[in-house]
Amino acid sequence: MVTYKTIVVPTDGSENAKRALEHALAVADRNQAELIVVHVANIVSAISNFDQTPISGGYVSEHMEETGKEILNDVVKEIPAGVKVKSVFEVGSPGPALLAVAKKYNADLIVMGSRGLGPLKGLFMGSVSSYVTSHSTCPVLIIK
């Protein structure tokens, strides 16, 4: 029987991420696994909007970190007391950053939400879930 001991769960606070967490909790409960909840502040997105964001005094990184840690704290509050959990904040490109976290913690499984992009928008923007499934060395469960 396949067992999972370490499950990486990316979150951005979206409904799809919340649904993914529900599934990850079910798998963790059955396997007594640890959850690694990850928020990646997308530096590429921040840079592409630099003309609309004040950057004096390091605002971009401070704001991104504050927002990301708030999202992580909100998610961790929803996890039942009996489940082992770590929260991880990263800054970078989401796909590679998630895979680096999965590798660092020797993840057995990644459970993540699908953004549900249409085919044309997905073609131009790329998809984190598509990137992760294509490049992960462990199983990936995509939740719609």
Describe the structure.
- The protein has a five-stranded parallel sheet with strand order 3-2-1-4-5, with helices on both faces.
- The chain starts with 5 loop residues before the first strand and ends with a strand.
- The chain contains six helices and five strands.
- It has helices at 15-31, 43-48, 59-77, 94-104, 119-125, 128-135, and strands at 6-10, 34-42, 85-92, 109-113, 140-143.
- Helix 4 (94-104) crosses helix 6 (128-135).
- The chain has 144 residues and is α/β, with parallel strands linked by helices.
- Helix 1 links the parallel strand 1 (6-10) and strand 2 (34-42).
Q: Main beta sheet: strand number and arrangement? A: 5 strands, parallel
Radius of gyration: 15 Å
Percent of residues in beta strands: 15-25%
Strand order of the largest sheet: 3-2-1-4-5
Tally the beta strands: 5
Number of helices: 6
Q: Mean pLDDT, nearest integer?
A: 85
Range of helix content: 40-55%
What is the end-to-end distance?
Answer: 26 Å
What structural category do the secondary elements indicate? alpha/beta
Provide the succession of SSEs.
EHEHHEHEHHE
**Coarse shape:** globular
Poorly predicted regions are: 48-57
List the defining traits of the structure above.
6 helices, 5-stranded parallel beta sheet, alpha/beta
